[in-house]
Specification:
- The protein folds into 2 domains: about 250 residues, UDP-n-acetylglucosamine1-carboxyvinyl-transferase, Chain, CATH 3.65.10; about 210 residues, Alpha-beta prism (UDP-n-acetylglucosamine1-carboxyvinyl-transferase, Chain).
- Helix content is about 25%, strand content about 30%.
Length: about 475
């Protein structure tokens, strides 16, 4: 491979989708070390890629349902492709028609089947945890595995409540992947109180509850994402939600006969965060990010950036599949540091690395606490974000449950950032570098395909200067 640098432009292909069969595709990832450079204003319009959380759920529920499910706008990132292949292994028919458009022939009354081989979830934490819940309501045996990063992440928070419902499981010491689930398909309904504000735990229990006789409930003390509730309703389930203090109790009465439907995937606010912050910190920038989902359980970053003084204006509101969508107009803004409320964490837990980048360019101190959940993501994101900032000259302090960022100084840059195979750390580092005095390099960018396969082309369309080896 030639190491002569090139600069991406709007016509450059970041990743290639390669057909494996009518049913499945894989992603060929060619990018390794990548460097971002200081640049002039960002201008133009881009579309946010399909939401990853909803893409996972649409594939899983479409496979569980009877009849046909048509999906448009599916995120064709590596994580989602792993889930698509998993549903094929479990007996559904999953077919790509063209970019973003997929058809699923669901299993319906026949039910999901035991796969002949282990299901490889790659780096998809959401995918594997939701799949564990989905298969538990069937007579089935399935082994799940993942890459090195996913194999280090905890699975007990999902497996333990599923065990209370009646499954058996075996996994590595520390309750990590690989893990085998064995279910008789005869589960009992439970009333589970979650120690974590986790949409993945809630979703796994609700998905298991689809084929469980009785009322299956989960109580959470802080609100988490409600995409599973919204989508289960779209497939014909009745979901009951009772507010309880700052949290809620969510219930499903089973068994439920799910019916295939049409789904239009909205844009991912977690992915939109990267070009949005890039425009906010780059003088003279003025961009429009279109088709962004505005579900209030996902917009904590937008609220925080607005409190810091960012120009964010959402217009052209509409709804699709029960979700609110808008176009976000963003301009360069002088930011001020803030204290981020701990209770806001569930609505922006994936966005703290890019918030820390914005905070580095803000005047004053930004404090982010109550986010220890970040330590068990694709990487230890608290430490990885600390290393990313500190290595490039930012005054930052690491706490067991968060970060303190002192902004306002010139960002020196010049470091090579270890991404720990974490897509959000990789993209955050590249955004930090677009306004630093010296270029910022990351050790690997291939994993960005897991959540934002068009990241490079989208950033190039608005003028970002990102260098990759050819």
């Amino acid at each position: 491979m030639s190491l002569a640098p090139i600069f991406l432009n709007a016509k450059s292909a970041s990743y290639r989708l390669i057909a494996v069969s009518q049913q499945t595709i894989k992603i060929e990832m060619n990018y390794m070390p990548t460097t971002s450079h200081k640049m002039g204003p960002l201008k133009g319009k881009i579309f946010a890629p399909g939401d990853k959380s909803i893409s996972h759920r649409s594939l899983i529920l479409g496979a569980m349902a009877g009849g046909e499910t048509n999906i448009t706008g599916l995120l064709e990132g590596a994580d989602i492709m792993a889930t698509a292949e998993a549903m094929n292994q479990l007996g559904a028919g999953v077919e790509r028609i063209k970019k973003g458009e997929w058809i699923i022939q669901g299993c319906g009354e026949a039910g999901l089947i035991s796969p002949s081989e282990p299901i490889d979830c790659g780096n998809a934490g959401t995918g594997v945890r939701l799949l564990m819940g989905a298969i538990s309501g069937y007579k089935i045996s399935a082994t799940f595995k993942g890459d090195t990063s996913l194999s280090s992440r905890p699975m007990a928070r999902v497996l333990n409540p599923l065990k209370q419902m009646g499954i058996e499981y075996n996994c590595d010491e520390g309750e990590t992947l690989p893990a085998t689930i064995i279910s008789s398909g005869d589960l009992k309904a439970i009333d589970y109180v979650s120690p974590h504000a986790s949409a993945q735990v809630k979703s796994a229990i609700l998905l298991a509850g689809v084929n469980t006789t009785g009322v299956t409930s989960i109580t959470e003390h802080t609100l988490s994402r409600d995409h599973s509730e919204n989508m289960l309703k779209a497939f014909g389930a009745t979901i009951n939600v009772e507010p309880q203090g700052q949290g809620q109790k969510v219930s499903i009465k089973g068994p439920v006969t799910l019916k295939g439907t049409n789904i239009n995937i909205p844009g991912d606010p977690s992915s939109a965060a990267f070009p949005i912050v890039a425009a906010i910190i780059t003088p003279g920038s003025d961009i429009l990010v279109q088709n962004v989902m505005m579900n209030p359980t996902r917009t904590g970053l937008f609220t925080t950036l607005t409190e810091m003084g960012a120009y964010l204006r959402a217009d052209n509101y509409r709804t699709s599949g029960g979700e609110i969508i808008a176009d976000i107009h963003v301009k360069y803004s002088q930011l001020n540091g803030v204290i981020v409320p701990k209770e806001r964490a569930p609505s922006m837990i994936d966005e703290y690395p890019i918030l820390a980048v914005a905070a580095a360019y803000a005047k004053g101190t930004t404090t982010m606490r109550g986010i220890s959940e970040m330590r068990v993501k694709e990487s230890d994101r608290i430490n990885a974000t600390f290393e990313l900032l500190a290595g490039n000259g930012v005054d930052v302090k690491e706490y067991p449950d968060g970060l303190l960022v002192k902004g306002g100084s010139v960002i020196g840059g010049g470091d090579t950032v270890l991404t720990h195979h974490d897509h959000r750390i990789a993209m955050s580092a590249l955004i930090l570098g677009i306004n630093s005095e010296n270029p910022i390099k990351i050790d690997d960018s291939s994993m960005i395909a897991t959540s934002f396969p068009t990241f490079f082309t989208s950033m190039a369309e608005i003028g970002a200067k990102i260098e990759v080896p050819q």
